[in-house]
Amino acid sequence: MTTVYTLTIDGRDVAGSEGQTIMDVAEENGIDIPGLCHLPGIHDRGACRLCVVEIAGSPRLAAACTTQIAEGMEVTAHSDTLQEYRRAATEMLFLERNHVCAVCVANNHCELQGLADDLSLTHFELPRISPQVDIDASHKLFAIDHNRCILCLRCVRVCDEIEGAHTWDVMHRGLETRVQTDMGIPWGESPTCTSCGKCVQVCPTGALFEKGRPVAAGSKDRRPFLPWLRVREEERGL
To answer: Which CATH number does the domain 4-78 belong to among 3.40.1360.10, 3.10.20.740, 3.20.20.70, 3.40.50.720?
Structure first.
């Protein structure tokens, strides 16, 4: 028998099953917690750290997408402290790569850009890093611009868990961290890529994009494989 826990999020009484995360319960109850690496149907990694919340009795912030609920837990998902933390974290995501929204294929249809607007992030106080990163357009249908990548790793997880190809992975460390295809070969030479486009559809920015798709075409369409994500959730018992 599944154990049901009761807890509060922002003072609101909610309930969830054993094994669920704070993010799971928040979504079920219409409570919005921002996050750029979270996507229902694939495992969470806590990569972006934007979904952090305060838990009564704990001196540390916790990632809502990876922290499981407990009986009597008191969660604060929105506060002035968290707002400032998320604003700083979002600013760093912009500055550690080369995000120029005006010339990006995802301009006005970008989750990072939308979050910055929600947080009223209008200027940067920290210096830009401006690393030298590449663009791989060797694939016949898609391309990846590492300037726009925020290392949410949605592409890695959806390719592995939903498509089953495991074309994408991660290489290097720190500021040199990059997502890669098949141990670092050009995407167009990948023997494992099925050209399904799932990685492109789940990318929250303009890092992965379809060639020839204009900005006016709008946001990425996840509808073709959303049923698979729902099935995945059910298999995980969520």
So the answer is: 3.10.20.740
